[in-house]
């Protein structure tokens, strides 16, 4: 509680008593601006037929009104049902009547302010999708325009000040889209409110090095895409309120694109730090392509060493491999909902193949598995006393958390040294400070983990499922890659190779292996040789 902003506490209490209420007072909206959305439509098809849908790799049938809020599905799955992302799917133009049918069903079967669909986050995503879709129609019936206005009115009454972060950004984006689409006084009310929020949030949520401040590569992609769509909206709609903000937004997008490059693996997808998975946000390649279409130019990722000081991630590119090192805090103190206890973890690719990976994210909600995926042992770092470096709990909570500091950055020709430490275990008696030194050159990468005093510790190192691991002896594991390359991992302490699971997408769990090295000494040195 002590980390929360007063605004978060106030609105959490306020919304318990003040519920949104919309009705005829919104009035009939009959006019809209004549511009047509031409941005990319890249979502996967999720409405498969008149009643059949698929979200998070799980199919279901939506036959009755109750199915929109069925307890048989998870909250996240139901949210996706109400997003209407299919209106911007790759093949959306061939299914116009199906979309009209689903929109009509949603209006008829989801009365105002009841159910998941009227919560602010799904409201926000759906409004953007509806605006983009209806902007491409020559005529839009008053029924749909009025529904958009009514939903926006409901959103205005429950802006997510109790959460902040990406949720509030999504609220503001939705109001800006609606305000640019509708006409007259009601439109001005929406766009002015949305932009007032964005004026503050854009500067706060994107850090000096371009990273989104929640420090999840997946959410960075989502928020960067949101920013690009807002830029596109300003260009397309020529809205008098939006256009003056375009130079600032483009400048922030440039840095955000550079940061994204540093956090991608050579296979083109994001790394798995904090809540991150493939298939939720658009692929980085599509983001870069969209930015080019909008005329945005950014600095490419450096060869060799890149240090993102504001966010706390460094990247090392060697001839045979690349490594991403996490010396970041868990995120903004008042918003650690998507944080994992992954401080001082790293990921590594050899060539274009992922080799050492954090275990990923396959689900939200409150469950033992959700908690396990957030804990230190699910990441490539050191756990002490069987506890995580940051006290993750529930589905989106963190109590005492690790604070990290980058101590040394040194580059000499093709040799790079990075040293960082964190105080997440200073709550122990005696206090334990974990320091990790990474020394990288073209032929090997050495990792030295030092503890300020002896403790019962365990170093975990998760292998990508496609890696074939062969234990040569107690101190050496041979890793055979799909490309035929061979990597040796050696340790000063005995190595265990144990079963694990890998979660590259929501709803996906793949059998894998992890290296496990228990140690009670004050220092552990391991080496990866190429």
Q: Could you name the key traits of this structure?
A:
530 residues, 8-stranded antiparallel sheet, 21 strands, 11 helices, 23% strand, 5-stranded antiparallel sheet
Describe what is shown at a glance.
The protein has 11 helices and 21 strands. It is of the alpha+beta class and 530 residues long. The strands form 5 sheets. An 8-stranded antiparallel sheet has the order 11-12-13-14-21-18-17-16, with no helix packed on it.
What do you see in this structure?
By secondary structure, the protein is of the alpha+beta class. It is 30% helix and 23% strand. The chain has helices spanning 6-17, 75-83, 96-109, 120-134, 142-156, 165-181, 184-205, 217-237, 246-262, 284-293, 368-374; strands at 52-55, 58-61, 305-308, 313-317, 321-326, 346-350, 353-356, 382-384, 392-393, 397-398, 404-412, 415-425, 432-440, 444-451, 457-462, 468-473, 476-480, 486-491, 496-502, 510-519, 523-529. The strands form five sheets. The protein has an eight-stranded antiparallel sheet with strand order 11-12-13-14-21-18-17-16, with no helix packed on it. Helix 6 (165-181) packs antiparallel against helix 7. The model has no long low-confidence stretch (mean pLDDT 96).
């Amino acid at each position: 509680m002590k980390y929360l902003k007063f605004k978060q506490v106030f609105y959490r209490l306020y919304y318990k008593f003040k519920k949104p209420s919309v009705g005829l007072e919104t009035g009939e909206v009959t006019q809209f601006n004549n511009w047509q959305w031409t941005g990319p439509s890249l979502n996967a098809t999720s409405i498969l037929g008149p009643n059949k849908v698929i979200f998070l790799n799980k199919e279901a049938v939506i036959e009755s009104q109750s199915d929109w809020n069925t307890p048989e599905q998870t909250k996240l799955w139901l949210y996706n049902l109400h997003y209407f992302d299919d209106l911007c799917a790759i093949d959306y133009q061939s299914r116009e009547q199906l979309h009209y049918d689903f929109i009509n069903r949603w209006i008829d079967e989801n009365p105002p302010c009841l159910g998941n669909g009227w919560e602010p986050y799904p409201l926000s995503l759906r409004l953007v999708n509806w605006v983009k879709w209806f902007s491409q129609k020559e005529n839009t019936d008053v029924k749909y325009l009025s529904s958009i206005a009514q939903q926006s009115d409901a959103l205005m009454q429950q802006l997510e000040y109790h959460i902040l972060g990406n949720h509030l950004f999504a609220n503001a984006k939705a109001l800006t889209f609606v305000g640019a689409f509708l006409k007259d006084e009601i439109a001005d009310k929406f766009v002015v409110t949305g932009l007032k929020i964005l004026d503050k949030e854009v500067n706060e949520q994107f850090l000096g090095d371009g990273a989104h401040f929640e420090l999840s590569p997946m959410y960075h992609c989502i928020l960067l895409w949101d920013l690009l769509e807002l830029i596109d909206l300003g260009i397309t709609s020529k809205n008098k309120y939006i256009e003056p903000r375009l130079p600032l937004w483009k400048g922030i997008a440039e840095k955000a694109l550079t940061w994204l490059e540093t956090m991608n693996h050579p296979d083109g997808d994001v790394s798995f730090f904090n809540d991150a998975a493939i298939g939720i946000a658009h692929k980085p390649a599509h983001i870069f392509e969209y930015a080019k279409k909008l005329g945005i130019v950014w600095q490419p990722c450096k060869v060799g060493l890149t240090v993102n000081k504001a966010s706390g991630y460094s990247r090392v590119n060697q001839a045979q491999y690349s490594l991403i090192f996490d010396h970041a805090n868990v995120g903004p103190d008042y918003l650690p909902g998507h944080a994992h206890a992954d401080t001082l973890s790293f990921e590594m690719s050899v060539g274009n193949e992922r080799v050492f990976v954090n275990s990923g994210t396959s689900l939200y909600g409150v469950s033992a598995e959700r908690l396990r995926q957030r804990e230190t042992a699910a990441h490539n770092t050191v756990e002490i006393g069987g506890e995580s470096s940051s006290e993750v709990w529930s589905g989106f909570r963190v109590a005492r958390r690790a604070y990290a500091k980058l101590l040394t950055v040194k580059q000499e020709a093709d040799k790079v040294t990075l040293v960082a430490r964190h105080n997440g275990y200073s709550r122990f008696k005696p206090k334990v400070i974990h320091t990790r030194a990474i020394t990288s050159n073209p032929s090997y990468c050495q990792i030295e983990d030092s503890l300020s005093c002896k403790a019962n510790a365990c170093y975990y190192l998760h292998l990508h499922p496609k890696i074939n691991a062969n234990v040569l002896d107690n101190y050496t594991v041979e890793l055979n890659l799909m490309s035929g390359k061979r990597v040796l991992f050696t340790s000063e302490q005995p190595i265990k190779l144990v079963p694990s699971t890998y979660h590259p997408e929501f709803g996906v769990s793949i059998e894998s292996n992890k290296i496990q090295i228990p140690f009670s000494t004050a220092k552990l040195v391991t080496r990866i040789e190429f």
